[in-house]
Amino acid sequence: MNPWFSPGFSRVRHRNTQREKKDFNNSTDHLLSNTHLYINMKSALIHVLFLLCATCVFGDADIVETVSAIEGESVTLLSNFTKIQKDDEIEWRLNEKHIAVISGGSITTNGAFRDGLQLDKQTGDLKITNIRTTDSGEYKLNIKNTRGSSVQTFSVKVETDPRSDGVTVVSVTEGDSVILHPDTEILKDDEILWRFREKYDIAKIKKDEDIISTFDDIADGIFRHRLHLNHQTGNLIISDITSKTSGLYEVDIKRRKHIIQKSFNVTITDKQDILSVNEGVDVTLGSGVTELHRDDRVQWRFEHEVVAKVNKTAGIVITFDDVLDGRFRGRLQLDNQTGSLIITHTRTTDSGLYYLDITSDRHVILRKFVLSVCDSCRFPDYVTLICPAFGVAVGILLVACGVSHCRRRRFKQVPRRVIKRSSI
User: Same CATH fold, 167-269 and 64-159?
Assistant: First the structure.
């Protein structure tokens, strides 16, 4: 019998054929499944790329930019356009109420567009100057053109401050140093720009590019070697203040979609309190304020040592009377209402310079006190020489007045003699 035509071989061949057919069908199904998966992935990829392109062109949709400001500051809401095109239509709304529209190169506004609002015709940015609590709300920027449309949303919250006029006043003595605080957390994408008298750029921080610069050669070099910038806080330190470096300082804190502007007015005062007391007498170094506000922070220094602090927000009132080998131990007191420092039972070792710093979001007060404590205070030598001379002069003047008065009385008491002439 031919083995190729045996029944057993036929069964084996049949089984192999069935297996090959099944494998082929499985391969075909797998290929079709992969094809469908590829098509679905391609569609999804195209959709994602479309969304990315739309985001690049129109900005981040459905992302709300949160903006916090203090009453009196300036805030700029950015459109992220460098230049508006002819077919672009820009519309700003506040709490769904129409504010302004830029269309065809012209700007139209309505009653809600108050004097403090400024719309950049070239970029579409909206600037709110001297911001108020009534400016809080949801701002929406609608952008329409032939390529599509998009919406950007800004949630603006303005905190009230009854003392706010938009400018933080800083009073210092000529020759002192001053620190201007932006009072905000510096984020990795932030850009900080400090200006002097609105026209001189004096310092800059751009964290994503590792730029930390001071421009102390501007304005004829009045800031040379006097500017220092803290790259972590953005604080600007100006040393050896003079009349030339006093005036208006502004800082712009630029973030991804908005800019916050703060202003500081640095003034120079000639006031320097000089106190002279006898040893053992209590002395009060006055803060110059009638009542501390809730966000005031007070610090007293003797020479370079901190001797007392007040933090109204944290409820801290503390004296450090153990510093300097405990020379003030048990003799320092703080007035919780005014921040004044009281030194009881003064000693000659208490003589020296005392510095007061009062800082808050709205003002900075810097004062200097010169305290002289002596065992038996007396006038200087020149006063001792002048006093006797002054006494002699007063004595002579009194004697002269007395003589004159006596003469006048005698003159009044002598009767007038009348001489009668006899006729011849």
Answer: yes
- What fold, for 167-269? Immunoglobulin-like (2.60.40)
What are the Cα distances from residue 51, in Å, to 46, 48, 54, 89, 230?
Answer: 9, 5, 5, 21, 40
Global pTM value: 0.49
Cα Rg of the chain, angstroms:
42
Closest CA to 182 of 107, 264, 247, 246: 264
Structural domain boundaries of the chain?
Answer: 24-58, 64-159, 167-269, 273-374
Residue that wins the pLDDT comparison between 53 and 181:
181
Between 203 and 134, where is the model more confident? Answer: 203
Q: Does domain 64-159 have CATH number 3.40.50.300?
A: no
Looking at the predicted structure, is the pLDDT value of residue 41 above 70?
A: no
Name the CATH architecture for the domain at 273-374. Sandwich (2.60)
